[in-house]
Input
Amino acid sequence: MTTQKTTRRHALHLLAAAAGMAALPALAASPAKIPMEVWKDPNCGCCKDWIVLMEQAGFSVKVHDTGNTAVRAKLGLPAQYGSCHTALVGGYVVEGHVPAADVHKLLKDKPKALGITVPGMPIGSPGMDGPEYGGRKDPYDVLLVSKNLMGNNVNARVFTSYR
Output
């Protein structure tokens, strides 16, 4: 009788292990989405296009259609580094049409910085690369923005250059 209970228990453990192993490929295929918040104008089409690209790159985006000027200032990014939308991800500011690969690199490297930005709206950058631009790609830089030692101003350097 003891043998039957042990055998039944053993079979249940094997069944549970098999079920767990069968689920592993599904879990590996869908890693957790990275949360991101975006502030933008409700009518901005290029912002919507950028958000779609971020979602395709593994971000779960919460959108605030309230404009971005006030939140950009609140987060400490000067207007000279501004663009049409502001995002917050992993404690970093992501301003403008930054490629998803650069956001992933920022989150992986974790530099001591305020965030990254693509000032303005360069044609050919993510979200500014639709068919209406006829394949045009203007050169642009993604800038890493850091607070200076005194903490009352920022400085920027090239994080990635697209030529």
